[in-house]
Amino acid sequence: MKVSRLGLMALAVVALVACDLTKYDVGGTVTGLTGSGLVLEDNLGDSLAITGNGAFTFSTGVQNSDAYSVTVSTQPSNPTQTCTVHNGAGTIDKAPVSHIIVTCTEAGQFAYVANQDSNDITVFAINATTGYLSQVSGSPFAAGGTTPVSVAVDPDGAYAYVANNGSNSVAVFSIEAGTGILTPVGEAVPTGTAPVAVIVDPSDNYLFVANQGSNNVSVYSISSGQLTEITGSPYAVGAGPSALATDPGSNFLYVANYTDGTVSAFTIAAATGALTGISGSPFAAGAGANSIAVDPTGTYAYVANESAATITAFSIAGTSGALSPVSGSPYNTGSDVQAISVDPAGAHVYAANATAANDVAAFAITPSSGALTVGANVAAGALPASLVLDPAGTFAYVVNFDSNDVSVYAIDGGTGGLSSVSGSPFLTGSAPRSIAVH
Fold first, then answer.
1. What is the fold of 106-437?
2. What residues does each domain of the chain span?
3. What span, in angstroms and rounded, lies between the C-alpha atoms of 292 and 279?
4. Has this prediction a pTM greater than 0.90?
5. In sequence order, what are the beta bridge partners of 209?
6. Is the pLDDT of residue 9 over 60?
């Protein structure tokens, strides 16, 4: 059969349409990088040297329907850091990829404590070898409002954000590199009523504030520490929101609601920060849900239920972010658990006031299921209210509300057991309520 020239041209057009040769960019954001020599690699063998925090894009694009996979080829040094890729693999779907997050961590340098009754922030320098805390020059620093109850540091360690419950605001501070000294940045930003928790998402693009008095969450975009409330904010949640957590890829936001014992769950729009409720939300936790933590793989979430004296464990659906109770959950604690945290290796959960009053308990995580097994506990100060771990997983820090101090523990890398460091506890201001370490 003879085909005309016009017919051949038509066939060629059809072939071009059927085979989309368009290539799409693959990139994302690097946070927390202080060392040098970080190299990323994609599945096409394209290497990309990273010299600083912020956006990155590989030079070679990926065709539609093809898979992409980004990994760390060389870890940074001077100082030595561990960088982890989140949202690093998938399939191109007729759009560029820009939501890959590379998070770099090292041993904590500074600890920041929000003191509720003295209206200030105590800042400590951390001895990376011993865990010993020394107050930095000028500490404590005025909180920029009344009744500071929560403090968060951005992934780059450049800014600190303080939720002031009494003045319905968030104060912003720049952090002086090398010293940890805080300097106010502009005026405090209005929030909802009685803000009680504040976090920065892993991409360092958005700040979330839980407003316990108005039962909502305020969302702000971040630009050089400056906050701008996004369109659509605030978002309604359950009754008495008390704590916030995101997954490591900044895909989902979880809000523990104290009064109704639930967890409100949302997807986070990478481009805008807008929140959309996840099907099935809110998810039942336990009475007095007052602290929430997500493991470093984004597979499990753990909620401390103060009134119920339990810990609720959830598995996280990777695509939707929906929560499902882990078999055997909730776990009885025997005491009104106040705070909860997961270690960077995802091997242990630590809970304050968990197995007895004024203690910290370690729970082993079963990797295949997320189930918890209680281990040893150690004494803390009076009413341990907040608990964080060093980014390197070396030390645990607990602020004790009634004894006005910080207990510091060395973490056994094998068993996860805790032992008090020399000099602990360390004095803070009055009624310390929250601690952040970077």
1. Methylamine Dehydrogenase; Chain H (2.130.10)
2. 5-104, 106-437
3. 19
4. yes
5. 198, 218
6. no
